[in-house]
Amino acid sequence: MTWSIVARDAETGHLGIAVASRFFAVGGVVPYIRGNIGAVATQAFVNPLNGVDGLALLAAGKAPSDIVTELADRDAGRDQRQFHLIDGEGRNAAYTGSKCINWAGHIVDDNVSLAGNMLAGPQVLQATFETFRGTAAKPLAERLLEAMQAGEDVGGDKRGKQSAALVIYRDQDYGWLSLRADDHGDPLAELRRLYAVAQERYLYVAETMATRQNPSGMIDRREIDQKIATLEAERIATGRKSVSLATTAAT
Q1: Domains of the chain by range and CATH?
Q2: Number of CB atoms found within 10 A of residue 77's CB
Q3: Interval 52-87: pLDDT, tens
Q4: In the chain, which ranges are E strands?
Q5: What is the pLDDT of residue 232?
Q6: Which tens digit of pLDDT belongs to each residue from 206-219?
């Protein structure tokens, strides 16, 4: 029902998952991440416990290849499952059950893995992979979005489009960015719009949030407020409209 990419930024250690599907709210069941620990995407005839328990096993220090074997061996429905995962060091592994609906398969490489089923063909994963590798100089979020669009452009999910999600964790227990388009005619385009909205204000506010290293976060928010005000002024001065759909209260 899905194809996804699970990746680690080799320079920062940040972890991300992007996923798209002709299935409602795919972002609610496929991606699982913990900062510095790892990331798991579980799909096809989805078993959410592969995400939950996969993260727990990564946190316990088990190797991704061993986790794949353990999760598959215990599951009587393994032939209909697909999942892939990466640890905090960039080691990854993937599993595609023999009864996953064609086209189905996966690609595993350093710091990235891709998996998909019900796809137009193997070119979907290949285009996604090549685009991700070819955008190494860009931020992780942009690499994941561009990679998924490349896969969509060569066929994507053979049934059509409905939902997509992008989740990125830095080094904390909570996500730095989590975007979902749950029921949309062009969900990847909607993710790109949401990412653009996040860059108008949200991502700067995220810098103020508490961390394990600084449990109080940034208490004096004047620096962030000034940054947002400056960006807003620049946008207005250049005639660029906000892409947000937010409304202003009537007076």
Answers
A1: 2-185 (3.60.20.10)
A2: 12
A3: 999 999 999 999 999 999 999 999 999 999 999 999
A4: 2-8, 15-21, 31-34, 38-44, 81-87, 92-96, 105-109, 112-116, 163-169, 177-181
A5: 87
A6: 989 999 999 999 98
Residue with tokens 């992780």: 140
Q: pLDDT, tens digit, for every residue of 119-129?
A: 999 999 999 99
Question: Given strand 92-96, what is the order of strands in its sheet?
Answer: 31-34, 38-44, 81-87, 92-96
Type of residue found at 56: A
C-beta neighbour count of 167 within 10 angstroms: 24
Q: What is the DSSP letter of 119?
A: B
Tokens of 143: 């690499």
| pLDDT one-digit tens code per residue, 5-39 | 999 999 999 999 999 999 999 999 999 999 999 99
pTM greater than the 0.85 cutoff: yes
Alpha-carbon distances, residue 5 vs 88, 111, 217 (angstroms): 16, 11, 31
Angle between helices 140-153 and 123-133 (to 10 degrees): 150
End-to-end CA distance of the chain: 47
Which two three-digit tokens encode residue 154? 């060569």
Kindly state the tokens that stand for 120: 């137009």
CA atoms within 13 A on the CB side of 58: 28
21 burial level (CB within 10 Å; 0-12, 13-18, 19+): buried
